[in-house]
Amino acid sequence: MALLPILRFPDPRLKKVAQPVAQIDASIRKLVADMAETMYEAPGIGLAATQVDVHERVVVIDVSEEKNNLLAFINPTLEKCSGEQVGEEGCLSVPGIYDKVERAERVTIKYLDLDGKQRTMEADGLLAVCIQHEIDHLNGIVFVDHLSQLKQGRIKSKLAKQARVTA
Ligand code: GNR
Ligand code: NI
């Protein structure tokens, strides 16, 4: 296992659209294991491969209290969305920044599991938010892209200032 470096907004590589995984082989299983380790260490409740500069459609999520319910989604697609919820979001690629984003309350996704089996899952609440946040990453979208231009500008200057003091 290995910890992977996480790209920071506004790194242009966060805008890349990830490609579907063609074959679930040992390299994909290793990527999932490394992404899980990186997510738990951060700590975060989800991580998309895009954030570790791998532009393939792979996501890990664990929204459990005990951090003992790892979910891995290969090639996830949003099949159904309904309702709305607004919650405070954060992102490991945008450290220290939190803001409200409107999302669907309930989603149905299709994906491949680590055995390459096609599966369907329904989710609501925080898990539904996290799934939407991670699929956005695979499409090159960061949660701050959902905020106003004014807020995005403020976030960029705050992160640039942070980077100067930690350098
Ligand atoms: O750790 C995370 N917490 C979080 C909180 C509210 C909404 C979404 C998230 S996902 C985030 C981890 C991350 O950046 N995933 O891409
Ligand atoms: Ni994120």
Secondary structure layout plus pairing:
Elements: H1 26-41, E1 46-48, E2 58-61, E3 71-82, E4 85-89, E5 99-103, E6 106-112, E7 118-124, H2 125-138, H3 149-166
Antiparallel strand pairs: 1-2, 2-3, 3-6, 4-5, 6-7
Bound molecules: ligand GNR and nickel (II) ion.
Nickel (II) ion is lined by residues 91-93, 133, 137.
Which terms would index this structure?
Peptide Deformylase; 167 residues; binds ligand GNR; alpha+beta; five-stranded antiparallel beta sheet; 26% strand; single chain; 29% helix; 3 helices; two-stranded antiparallel sheet; binds nickel (II) ion
For the record, the CATH architecture stands as: Alpha-Beta Complex
Termini distance?
28 Å
Any low-confidence stretches, pLDDT <50, length ≥5? none
Helix-and-strand structural type: alpha+beta
What does this protein look like?
The protein is of the alpha+beta class. It has one domain: Alpha-Beta Complex (Peptide Deformylase), CATH 3.90.45. 29% of the residues lie in helices and 26% in strands. The protein contains three helices and seven strands, in the order H-E-E-E-E-E-E-E-H-H. A five-stranded antiparallel β-sheet has the order 1-2-3-6-7. A two-stranded antiparallel sheet has the order 4-5. A hairpin with a 5-residue loop joins strand 6 (106-112) and strand 7 (118-124). The longest helix has 18 residues, at 149-166. It is globular, with a radius of gyration of 16 Å. 31% of the residues are buried. The mean pLDDT is 97. The structure holds ligand GNR and nickel (II) ion. Ligand GNR binds at residues 44-48, 51, 89-93, 129-130, 133-134, 137.
